[in-house]
Amino acid sequence: PSLKKVVGDKFHIGVAINTAQSSGRDAKSVQLIKKHFNSVVAENCMKSAVIHPEENRYNFSQADEFVKFGEDNDMFIIGHCLMWHSQLPRWFCTDSEGKNVSPEVLKQRMKDHIYTVVGRYKGRVKGWDVVNEAIIEDGSYRKTKFYEILGEEFIPLAFQYAHEADPDAELYYNDYGMNVEGRRNTVVKIVKDMKEKGLRVDAIGMQGHMGMDYPDMKEFEESILAFASTGAKVMITEWDMSALPTAKRSANISDTVAYRKMLNPYPEALPDNVSEEWNARMTDFLNLFMKHSDVITRVTAWGVIDGDSWKNDFPVRGRRDYPLLFDRNYQPKPFVKELIEKK
Ligand code: XIL
């Protein structure tokens, strides 16, 4: 019994993998990846800071290994991500004095970057997160360097370049907090506008970083439907669910003991199987994804086991979190176990 046997006829079931996994060093996680998933995305190694650290230097070694891992294991390979304000090398948008480059220069750099990266894996990487996290909650554009220099145009431009570099690749717009109405409305508009202009947009990626009290499931469902109304498919691209209370990075608490307690209010670690509430909420969301499997074409977990999750260090460092489908002992969480044993 495996996840892909149970849900694989509904949508691709994917996972984000790190370099220890794509290189094969982390054999235990590799076993789980091969058994349960049929799609992979690189957790970090295709981000611009890693793959293109200097203007005239690319670093393809980890990305090459990742793509080979995907091919060797017959996975649907996703590239993450082409244009993102984070994990972006400083040189990309500025000149040697640190001043913003001109729109012409930035366009040329975007084009070179996208042509080179997408071109290298043409026909092998099947879908790209072309633009990541460009819209904020109130529906306005995030004030990134891309936006400062090029305005709204940077999004359609990125999609145009990606399509030119590999006409067969699927292209996605990806963002978090996609249940929120302001962001939802703007993303719908952007995708509709691009499609009307004749640009290729295959899917809208809802990252799906969740917690016990967000997102609201009804809002999330409304977004699935709104995104599908553009004619694009919907993907849950970075699914995880923190079991810890939300901690604000900006929390300004002078009492260290109180602060630590706020970061992790549990005196002991939680049990590896987390709580019944957590498992029930994961089941509810998975059921929601299956209910909409006519429009949802992929569900990807953002990591294999809890011990490797980014949530242990976000939004504050050094917590012990339990957000993924497999625990620190490589065991499926109860809701996963129940699901795969039922079949
Ligand atoms: C995270 C990775 O998981 C971490 O290892 C890294 O340190 C920071 O980025 N949204 C995204 C992902 O689109 O690329 C982020 O991944 C998580 C949030």
TrEMBL record:
GO biological process, one term: polysaccharide catabolic process
A Pfam short name: Glyco_hydro_10
Class of the enzyme per the UniProt entry, highest EC level: hydrolase
Reaction(s) catalysed (UniProt annotation): Endohydrolysis of (1->4)-beta-D-xylosidic linkages in xylans
Top-level taxon of origin: Bacteria
Keyword annotations: Carbohydrate metabolism, Glycosidase, Hydrolase, Polysaccharide degradation
Residue ranges occupied by any GH10 domain in the UniProt entry: 1-342
A GO molecular function held by the record: endo-1,4-beta-xylanase activity
EC number(s) recorded for this UniProt protein: 3.2.1.8
Family assignment from sequence similarity: Belongs to the glycosyl hydrolase 10 (cellulase F) family.
Protein name: Beta-xylanase
Protein's organism: Bacteroides oleiciplenus YIT 12058
Taxonomic lineage of the native organism: Bacteria, Pseudomonadati, Bacteroidota, Bacteroidia, Bacteroidales
